Amino acid sequence: MLADFIETIVKILVVVVVLLTGFAYMTWFERRVIARLQVRIGPNRVGPEGLLQPLADGVKLFFKEDIIPAEADKALYLLAPMLAVVPSLLAAAVLPFGPDVTLFGRTIHLYIADINIALLYFLGLGSLGVYSVVLAGWASNNKYALLGGLRASAQMISYELAMGLSVLAVVMLTGSFSLVDIVEAQAGGRWFVLMQPLAFIIFVITMLAETKRAPFDLPEAEQELVAGFHTEYSGMKFALFYMGEYIGMIVISGVAVSLFLGGWQGPFAEQIPLLGVLYFFLKVAVFMFFFVWMRATLPRLRYDRLMQLGWKVLLPLSLANVVVTALAVVARDTGFFGLLG
Amino acid sequence: MSSIPLNWYLIVAALLFCIGLFGALSRRSAIGILMGIELMLNAVNINLVAFWRYVEVDGLAGQMFAIVVITVAAAEAAVALALVRALYRSRDTVTVEEIDLLKW
Amino acid sequence: MTLEQGIFILASLLMLGSALAMVTARSMFVAALWMIGTFAGVAVLFILLNAGFLGIVQILIYIGAIAVLILFAIMLTPDVMGLKPGPRYTGQWPLAAVMASTLAAVIVLLLVRAGNDWHIADAAPNVTDFAVQLGEAFMTTYLLPFEVASGVLLVALIGALVIVRDE
Asked: Which helix (H) or strand (E) holds A101?
């Protein structure tokens, strides 16, 4: 009992530390890669190859003046940045990042919790993310912030539908909401991206929209809205919004990897558990590169085009995908293909 | 055996229902009335699930009912907010006392 | 007092306190935020009642969709945002308060007098995975309610669109 408790605490600490370090180095990675894509060099002065840049940024943000606008709603103004970080951190609890490990005679599962409705839990926390944006926009008492908040909430609600439906196709194939079961169902290279390419594409597009990344970064479109919902924020509170965004990116990539790319599965991962963890992180890193690549490549969508894409293209496509998958699953379970052959 | 008596749930749900009732009866804004109604529906759901858990745990009727109530609440919220929007556009107000075309 | 009871009391206080704050808040935006507190309390109660699936559904639909929708409507309606000042309540609010508190008093009194006189079959549920059970029931025993609910949703969707459409 006590050992279980300690094990869980240690796992939570490790996951939080990894996510926070991942956030810090993701800022460095993004700036370097974008610089490369734009034929610049990027931050390279602090430490070798600029590796200490995140630290320097953190120190700088710590000592910045913390400004609360005069007419702002103080309690909500303080609450919003916290709400940006907490749901993303909580969502990481259901991610399986490796096979079972035996350590000191104990079998340790490399996930914090395997709940049978893990995917619903993830979607639920995703919908909580809207609040940080809405509250920040409203509490700042600034018209740009309010417009950014409005845009963000509409965008996130619209894309969440398509995301939920694309996930549903995978759930129907495995018959389980648990990410652990879904990863196990993909053993032996039977990745769901092969069976569900359409669902994968829809998930990746909605994933960009849910994390408010380019080309869907309208809530913070600097040319029209200054910085959108976080216009008025400074210092550590500003940093918390960034933290929420990047941790959200890492966690949602983890979910995408678990759903479609086999999670930690890969050659010899069963025998050498650490290899599984490595595969998982490599796959997530590919997604992180994808995020940066998209930002450097694609122009921002116009707002009405964004809504049209969400409601008139992605939603019908994902619905059709659910129907086709349902038919295929029924055919498989009733042996329809057997009758034909 | 749960350590919480069924009564506790029923009392809490009754109080929530009455608070929602007060909100629905007294608010001037149509949206305030809608929010009061949402509270009442939530109170009903607590009762349904509590009775399911304590009386009919082998069936699923209680949870089923709660899910249907949530569905209807979602539909109701969508339609009501569309009405509020249309009202605001045509009459420039959402205060229920000022929407008195049929009253004379 | 057990841990379960403690959680129940905390969740109920959160729920009822938020509900009271909601019906008394001056600004509709703040009222909608208190409503979210109430929804969260209800979700905790569902989880305490072994209905974890409903708890998540409560968060997903009520907090994630309905509350956002209401906030959205409030932000798009300057009238409600408090830009036009005016009293929060209609003239009949004392009557409403008396009615609501009388009803509360009557129900609570009856419940306290009834005590534990219910046909309580208080056995813990023998399954944990209600998602599967509910899914199967929706496709068999409860097929008709399921279809009716989806019909209601479709009608509401089209109805809402028709109502807000520009000419």
From this structure: strand A101-103
